[in-house]
UniProtKB/TrEMBL annotation:
GO BP annotation list: cytokine-mediated signaling pathway; immune response-regulating signaling pathway
Signal peptide segment: 1-21
Keywords: Disulfide bond, Immunoglobulin domain, Signal
GO cellular component: plasma membrane
Gene Ontology terms, MF aspect: inhibitory MHC class I receptor activity
Entry protein name: Immunoglobulin domain-containing protein
InterPro entries, per the entry: Ig-like_dom_sf (IPR036179), Ig-like_fold (IPR013783), Ig-like_Receptors_ImmuneReg (IPR050412), Ig_sub (IPR003599), Immunoglobulin_dom (IPR013151)
Segments traversing the membrane: none
Organism: Bos indicus x Bos taurus (Hybrid cattle)
Length: 273
């Protein structure tokens, strides 16, 4: 097998990277929201597009929109571009992505960021049908209920940005409900949960969050009897010992079990012979 000269190998790699860049296949940046992507109505939020140090400019746009929301602000020489939304409204919700410019070319789009506005409807209620302290491996059902006829309910964990489940609702007592299943539950699922209600025709506008539900996942503790229980167990053991002694004495006083001999009975001999 012939060896490829290092110079040709380097040339090949350079041409490959150049071709990759010319096709616009620069690695995608990362888009985040501060303080979070689940934003109360009329609150402030900032979108950040983070790319490599060599980036020459950035732009942020809503998925489905061909142009950036603000060209002058989006295409800049800053390494990390920020889009500031002073007051969150339903018209600014949706999926956002961003890209960066390098060498006159634009990178791939980042993964989409779901920007949600909360507080549009009254809050639902969230409860655990197995209690708030459960054991690992247990089947846990979280029930989200609302008097409003929401099409879907969303379960989030901790800071409200981590969507755990999104499920359709069913009728319940004049309103709607859904059951979120955690099966089997593990220690990593412990934390603070909330649920929201929404409608399919406006999926990024949610209700107020439910009151927080703190779920604890704890292994069963070893059984430690109380002092009173220990005394009772000791008395029971002593009584059992006394009964055994009495039974043994009664058995011995009766001579114990009869012993049967396997030897044949003695034979009588005639002494007159």
């Amino acid at each position: 097998m012939s060896m490829v000269p290092p110079s040709l190998l380097c040339l090949g790699l350079c041409l490959s990277q150049s071709t990759w860049a010319q096709k616009g296949n620069l690695p995608p940046p990362r888009i985040t929201a501060l303080p979070g992507s689940t934003v109360p109505a009329k609150s402030h939020v900032t979108l950040l597009c983070q790319g490599p140090k060599q980036a020459e400019g950035y732009r942020i746009s809503r998925v489905g929109s061909p142009e950036p929301m603000d060209k002058e602000e989006q295409i800049t020489s800053r390494k990390t571009n920020a889009l500031s939304i002073a007051e969150m409204t339903s018209g600014k919700t949706g999926l956002y992505h961003c890209s960066y410019q390098r060498g006159g070319r634009w990178s791939q789009f980042s993964d989409p960021l779901q920007l949600v506005m909360t507080g549009a409807y009254d809050k639902p209620s969230l409860s655990s049908m197995a209690g708030t302290v459960v054991s690992p491996g247990e089947k846990v059902k979280l029930q989200c209920v609302s008097k409003i006829n929401h099409d879907v309910f969303i379960l989030t964990k901790e800071d409200g940005d981590h969507v755990t489940q999104n499920q359709s609702s069913v009728p319940h007592d004049g309103g709607r409900q859904t059951i979120f299943l955690l099966n089997p539950v593990s220690s990593t699922q412990a934390g603070t949960f909330r649920c929201y209600g929404a409608f399919r025709d406006n999926p990024y506008v949610w209700s107020q969050p439910s009151d927080p539900l703190q779920l604890q996942v704890e292994a069963p503790t070893a059984w430690h009897p109380s002092v009173e229980t220990q005394v009772r167990l000791s008395l029971a053991a002593l009584l059992l010992l006394v009964m055994v002694v009495l039974l043994a004495e009664a058995w011995c006083s009766q001579g114990g079990p009869s012993v049967k001999s396997d030897e044949p009975p003695p034979q009588w001999t005639d002494k007159r012979r």
